[in-house]
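Predict structure. Chain length: 275.
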Amino acid sequence: MKQLSRQGAIDDGLLDSFGARPTGDGRWSATIDRSWWGWSGPHGGAIAALAVRVGADAAPGTSVRALDLRFVGKPDGAELFLAPSVREVGRHTRIVDVSITQAGVEIASASVTAGRVGESGPTDVVDRSASVPGPERLDSFMIPPEIVPMGAHLDLRPVDGPLPLTGADEPWMRAWITSRTPMAVDAGYLALLADCLPPAVFPTLTAPLALPTVAFSMHVTSPLDDATPAPILVHTRNISTSGGWSVDDTSLRDRGGRLLACARQSRRVLGWPVR
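Prediction complete.
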């Protein structure tokens, strides 16, 4: 994975999109402008992506393997500050805790697990799915930017399954997603895309609800050895919505069907009923 540099950010679409820059002592600042907002505030996937990148910068020589993110406040349009703290776990594993604040108030906390990745071998377990139509053969679907501004930043091409707000019976969606600004395929980019589809319960609805993310986790499952910008197949499904909470599972795969990462989100349901 490409690493950040404390001397200056690399030429990278993800960092440029959020104005990420070092402020000294390993800390970074960024701003998620309103074009990257979701239903009611800054896109949570952007905050997750920035936490991953800052964690990677704080643990040079390693690759990001997992992210755990908790929102402890409501983000707004103010400047974000991300401060990492590194813990060594053995010789080759690092846990990087990242505090994310706005105006001196913590709005999220993240834990990034990074470590050395060995060479592949014949006993590796690799999850591959059956092939699906490539993005070139599919029509683009625009999330209405007047409702969700960040939709304008995405080339989103549904593969199969129901569309949001169609009153369908099944709570899942699958689509190829590419950012319109080219971004390297790394753990940060996967964290961004893992939160780009609407909540997976949306196909069963006919009107939108606010379902803010409270907890987000992601695990990288394959070596990310090709950073070339590329479409990612994102499949999200709702595994539970009850009692005011909703849980989604999301998988992210490359063109060959190889599982790159899996993610899970717990959301609060603000409004009821959900059908």
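Summary: The first strand starts at residue 21 and ends at 24.
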